[in-house]
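note to self: dont lose this again. the chain is below, predicted strucutre after it. 107 aa total, dont forget to put it in the shared folder this time
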Amino acid sequence: ASANHFGMEQFQPLIAAPIKKDFKETQLMKISGSKYVVASIVNSNENGFQIRMRSVSQKEEKIKLSWPTKKPLGLTVSNGNASHDQNIIGQKILLPANGLITLNVLW
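---
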């Protein structure tokens, strides 16, 4: 896990800087679980975004997302093979061993 984390930092470094003097930081979401890496967060349209998560575990892991400030209207998961279109807000999400999933968040 630490080698993957180091590689991701080198490949896609994250540099954040406030653009307003009165900028107030808020937490968008919390993720429970320990053996995953958030590979990217990308706006998919004006009403949502996609989160790509990668497992760094040799076995399936369950993760759960919680939304402290703003709860989304919908959350779907796709893993490349199939898309689960049901709303899974508040449910645990299965992250395949050494796999990659895409979470589609709709506001």
